[in-house]
Amino acid sequence: MRTRNKLFIFYTILTFLFYGCKPFIRLNTVHPDSDKTVSFTITRGTVIGPVDEINLEIEGETVATQPDEPLEYLGGPYHSFSNRKLNFRAMAGKSGRNYVNSNWVYIANPKGQFSHESPNGSNNGYPDNSSEQTGANLYRLDKSIVLTHANNAVMEFSNSTGLSIIEVYGVADNLVAAVAFYVDQHMSWRADSANRRIFRENGYSDYTPGWDFPQPADLTLTISGNLDNATPNDDFQGDCEDHAILRAALLRALGFASWGIWDAIDQNITHEYNIVMYEGAYRIMDYGLIGRWLNSHTWNSHKTHYGWNEDHGPRGVNSTNNNFIKNNTDNFPGDKPCDGAWNYNKYYRIKCK
Amino acid sequence: MRTFLIACIIIITSLDYINSQVMKDSIVSQRIYNGPCEILMVEGTITFDNSGDPIPQFSISVTSNSQQLIKAKVGFVNSKQARSIEFTNEIKQIEGNPTFRLSGENQNTRSIILDLAVLIDGKIPSQPIANSTISIVLPDNFRLINCNMEYSVSRENNQNVISINQKKKYLSSLVIIYSIDGIGLEIEKSIEPKNINANSQITVNLRLTNTSSVSLTNVLIEDNFDSRDFSPVGEGFTQFLGKENDRRLIWTKVISRISPGQTIEITFAIKSNFSVEKTKLSAAIATINGRLIGVSNEIIL
After folding, report:
1. Contact B223, B188 (CB under 8 A)
2. To 5 degrees, how large is the angle CA A160–CA B300–CA B252?
3. Taking CB atoms and an 8 Å limit, are A76 and B280 in contact across chains?
4. Same domain, A234 and A310
5. Do the Cβ atoms of A254 and A261 come closer than 8 Å?
6. Residue B247 has what pLDDT?
């Protein structure tokens, strides 16, 4: 027998020893969210020869059975498994024996979380120093104007896409897309030096939040576009962190869970943007529509390193902020692995899809 | 056995469907009005008094497709003028104004922001507004600087009328910037080519028309771009480097004089570092001594 054939047999035996005889299960996604259907495809996998029966169990109940491969099954949406594991098992029957393969996916659902932390900043709830730059103090979900514009985002996205308001409000990915769209449509960049002056000249001279002058979302919505001693080129103005804070605040006002929306800062501290749960995975949301940054890394400013949100703060650039983002947004939610240690590349489809 | 399995599948599927509907319905019922009332029409006119302050006059027409007596509270968001109405399968018209905020009241360039979202029982109606017609009547010495909704302009009784007409759309926040002393510069921004591929040169064109009855002098035109996306070509650019974060490419040019009614075109070029899409290029602005006199359109990519 030739050496090549021997090697083939050796590796085949090794494969069987390692994996055993079992059917294969393929899903159209490894990170379904609760609003989406999931497509299961079962083949006989490493079970040798024709099989008598293939079936699929989801959470212990058989949902599809047929005599031959491939078995195709469209399940879900699995709302009732929101934010927990969905277990499934494929079985291939052959000559009275069942070969089994079990697995699970995590069903992410960041919708419907309307409770929020109360602001506690020393300046009427606003931050009065860097350590008070928390989600509660900067998102200001207690202010009605934040909800007014969050609802505007949903309505304008409905106008633009033709989706009904129920379709926008009822699907997490549509809420994210609506907020990215709204902030892109209505907000433009302005330097912090000008932002400081505008705040000072519009009744907020005592607003001294500490590092980097982040604008609270409610004040971005009320005074950043004011004409008093200013020349705005859009409805709202601010620099990168102000865009990111507004996006996060609007999403939270729409009931998007605090664990699903983050403010992120790159390693060289050149930019602030959002990391958001989208299509069941953590992705980048920044200037532009949600579809702009999903696929692969382009900007050096997106070398994500630091992060904060309503549950983890304050805002800052130290090892604690690095740990926040590293430990809480390592794609995907629910400990479903994406290969390798966390790094900024994990937010792209090309790395974790 | 097969019957049992089929029954199991049906039960599981039904339970999950019901569960999903309950979850969706709970969110929907908190924020969305899904009852028999619909907003048929929003009509509004904004005029201005002698001091330049706006006088809005709005009405909302509501209809119901129910034969039963319906009670609902209808009005603009955050407005204390929301009305409780009772009606049966008929059209009701409610008078009431949206809340609005002004800025620049002590200047000749001012803005008005109107919250035009209409709510039923404090919630967003599940159906958009069938028809919306809003007119902003600017006195002869006023000039429109910017409006954040799609509009058309007509001339009626020596006044410029800005009309916003929408069908089957929700209304949100309307922002109008105007001058009260007849000063205005219309700016039309365009780029060539329309699609921005990586490493290509983009020509930006600004078409400026002086809508004032006087000459405008020393007009500062400003535009800005994300310096991660674009590099400068030629003169007129400065790189903004923030203290902690953010980078921006700022382009400026001073126009020494534009006569009344005169149109001039300015072009400059930038180079794209990446393919740029699914975003916008911000509006360019024109100022004289720090006063805003013109805002261009944005470019949607």
Report:
1. no
2. 145
3. no
4. yes
5. no
6. 80
DSSP string computed for A22-78: --EEEES-SS-BTTS-EEEEEE-TT--S--SEEEEEETTEEEEEESSSPEEEEE---
Contact B283 A77 (CB under 8 A): no
Task: Indicate the SS3 state at residue B17.
Answer: helix
A220 and A71 assigned to the same domain: no
Q: What's the half-sphere exposure (Cβ side, CA atoms, 13 Å) at A325?
A: 33
- Domain around A48: 20-107
Could you give the domains of chain B?
Answer: 34-179 (2.60.40.3680), 185-300 (2.60.40.10)
Would you say B264 and B257 are in contact if contact means Cβ atoms under 8 Å apart?
Answer: no
ipTM of the complex model: 0.91
Facing residue for B278 by CB, picked from A229, A255, A292: A292
Domain of A60, CATH number, reads 2.60.40.10
Is A209 in contact with A130 (CB distance < 8 Å)? yes
Q: How far is A314 from A321, CA to CA, in rounded Å?
A: 8
How many angstroms separate the CA atoms of A140 and A276, rounded? 19
Of B16, B78, B117, the CB nearest to A80: B16
Best mutation target, A166, A185, A186, A193, to test chain B (most B CBs within 10 A): A166
Residues A292-343 pLDDT 10s: 999 999 999 999 999 999 999 999 999 999 999 999 999 888 878 788 999 9
